[in-house]
Design a protein that fits this description.
Membrane topology: Multi-pass membrane protein
EC number: 2.5.1.-
Order of helices and strands: HHHHHHHHHHHHHHHHHHHHHHHHHH
Oligomer: single chain
Strand content: under 5%
Structural class: mainly alpha
Radius of gyration: 36 Å
CATH class of the domain at 130-312: Mainly Alpha
Region (Disordered): 68-135
Largest sheet: none
Distance between the termini: 137 Å
Helix content: over 70%
CATH architecture of the domain at 130-312: Orthogonal Bundle
Biased composition (Low complexity): 110-135
Subcellular location: Mitochondrion membrane
Length: 500
């Protein structure tokens, strides 16, 4: 019984059969006619497979058995008549583009162009891998070997990013000067507090990253990005790494407690617990781990804001006053924390896409392989959140309104790359484009926010020229002089009365 597809294609098959019969008749006539010989073609004679190279027959696959039998007969014939070694069947021998039909040549070129444009170049190795390689090249038991190995446990680039994300909100807090409190009558920020903040935050980050490596050396060994870490290569023992993490964590929390304030110290300890105790184990359970990791990224900005708020606190300096002030002065800290929280998603979604198969093989559940479509949607969604967050910083009085204008191009750039990442699901170079856009986006936004800090340039103008553009300095001085004159007059009057 013939299939419906063969019945539908009966007219075309009949036409091909007639063409084949007429062609063979013409060849026999040319070969038997005197003075006429069939011209020899320098190219390979066209077979039935040439006429069958179209999408309809390719999808139906109903004639594959016929072609395979024909190729096998041709192979057996060439083996018996030729001393050369047998060739592979045509279905297994790759053909060059020039041997294909014209329309097949165009399709092959398009496919090659698509593959070349969608190929993802490997991302640069992280600092831990580079430091581990440097440590392994040093003599055993040398100081440089030990120092590089322990430094690689801290994930230096990530730690530097965490410290910078705490320093920027500290500098953005709305106080007029970065001077010692004893040098000015107005609220100010202390460089000593900033030193304790940066040191304690760096130590807490180092402890969290070391505990992260201690928890998953088996999964790190299965991925190219992490297989060069010091614990995987055995440069440091697990006992030594655990002791290093405990010392860094204790020193960091203590420095934040006594050098900054208890609220910041509690936030630093919470970051260690959430990152090492919740986020790291959750990676093997659910893709929701990315949201927990984003919370970890949003805590350092709150630490910097709470550190600055403690310097300007007028009440008891409790966590409610520093993080939930009734006058709304703590809104800026939450907005900056939201900025870092949202940034985690486009950055990590693009980063994880390139190694999604390795995450899958290691048993780590990431959206890049569990749900690629949602992976792109999440990256695009949180890229759009930057627009209202930047406007919110202006409305909260953290920055001036020029920041909303200058940050828009950076936000549009990342949103565009996130849209491409969602549209092509990471292909056509969109994942790499979003990754590098996120790398440059965060420092760009932070630098612009610092440049557009509220009233910063007016204070700089007064510091240089002694007055501002609106003449507010003169009015203040006149009011102060009038007050001094009134006080002097009252004093003189009292003196005159006492003499009488």
């Amino acid at each position: 019984m013939r299939s419906p597809l063969v019945i539908a294609l009966a007219p075309e098959l009949q036409l091909l059969s007639k063409c084949s019969i007429r062609t063979s008749t013409a060849r026999r006539w040319l070969s038997t006619s005197p003075g006429l010989k069939a011209p020899r073609s320098s190219t390979t004679p066209l077979g039935g497979s040439f006429f069958l190279q179209n999408r309809l027959f390719e999808r139906s696959r109903c004639l594959e058995s016929i072609i395979s039998r024909r190729n096998s007969r041709a192979t057996s014939t060439s083996t018996s008549t030729s001393p050369t070694p047998p060739q592979k069947p045509a279905s297994q021998t790759p053909q060059s583009i020039s041997e294909l039909a014209p329309h097949r040549q165009r399709q092959a070129r398009k496919q090659a162009l698509l593959q070349s444009s969608s190929s993802e170049a490997p991302l640069p190795p992280d600092a831990s891998s580079l430091l581990t390689s440097a440590a392994a090249s040093q003599p055993k038991d040398s100081f440089r070997r030990r120092f590089s190995a322990y430094l690689s446990l801290t994930k230096p680039r990530l730690t530097v990013l965490v410290v910078l994300s705490a320093m920027a909100p500290y500098a953005l807090y709305p106080v007029p000067e970065m001077l010692m409190p004893t040098m000015t009558e107005t609220p100010s920020l202390s460089p000593l507090t900033l030193l304790f903040l940066t040191t304690g935050t760096a130590l807490c980050s180092a402890a969290a990253n070391t505990l992260n490596m201690l928890y998953e050396p088996s999964t790190d060994a299965k991925m190219t990005r992490t297989r060069n870490r010091p614990l995987v290569r055995g440069l440091i023992s697990n006992r030594a790494a655990a002791l290093f993490a405990a010392l860094c964590g204790a020193a960091g929390v203590t420095a934040l407690y006594y050098g900054v304030n208890p609220t910041v110290s509690f936030l630093g300890l919470s970051n260690i617990v959430i990152y090492a105790g919740i986020y790291t184990p959750l990676k093997a359970v659910t893709a929701f781990n990315t949201w927990v990791g984003a919370v970890v990224g949003g805590i350092p900005p709150l630490m910097g804001w709470a550190a600055a708020a403690g310097e300007a606190a007028t009440k008891d300096g409790s966590w409610k006053e520093l993080l939930l002030a009734s006058d709304g002065s703590s809104i800026g800290g939450w907005l900056l924390g939201g900025l870092l929280f949202a940034w985690q998603f486009p950055h990590f979604m693009a980063l994880s896409w390139g190694v999604r198969e390795e995450y899958k093989a290691a048993g780590l559940r990431m959206l890049a392989w569990t749900n690629p479509a949602r992976n792109g949607r999440v990256a695009l969604r949180y890229s759009l959140v930057f627009f209202p967050l930047c406007f919110g910083l202006c409305a909260a009085g953290v920055t001036d309104w020029y920041f909303a204008l200058t940050s828009t191009p950076l936000n549009l750039w990342q949103a565009r790359e996130a849209y491409r990442f969602w549209k092509y699901e990471g292909h056509k170079g969109s994942a790499r484009g979003l990754f590098w856009a996120s790398v440059w986006h965060l420092p760009g936004v932070m630098i612009l926010a610092l440049l557009h800090k509220k009233d910063m340039w007016s204070r700089a103008w007064r510091a240089v020229f002694g007055e501002d553009e609106d003449g507010e300095w003169e009015e203040e001085e006149l009011e102060e002089m009038a007050g001094m004159a009134a006080a002097a007059a009252v004093k003189n009057g009292e003196t005159t009365k006492s003499r009488r």
